[in-house]
Amino acid sequence: MIDLQRVSIADARRISALVSHPLWLSAAAPLREHTRRAAQWCADQQRSDGSWKQDPDPRPFETSVAGVALSLIDDPRARHAAARARAWIDSHPSAARDEDTKLFDEALGLLWRGEALDLRASFWQSPVMLRKTWSLQVFALLLGASVETGVDEPFLRSLVATLFSKRNERALKPWHRVELAAMTALLHARVGDREAVREALADLRSAQCDDGSFCYLPVSTALALLALDLEPRDSAFERCLESVLRSQREDGSWVFTTNELWDTSILLRTFEDTSPVRGACAERARGFLVRNQCEDGGWGFRVGVQSDNDTASSALLALGRSDSYQRARSRCAAYLAGQQLPNGLWRTWQDVSDEVSDDVLAHVVLALSLCNETPSSVKLEDARAWLVEQCSNNHTWKGSWYRNQAYPVLEIAKALPTGHPLVDRAIDALSLGQNSDGGWGAADGERSVASATGLAVTALLLFAPDKIEPIVAGLAYLMESQSPDGTWSGVPEMLGPRPLVSHYQTQTHAFAAGGLVLATRLAR
Question: Are the beta carbons of 442 and 491 closer than 8 angstroms?
Answer without folding.
Answer: yes
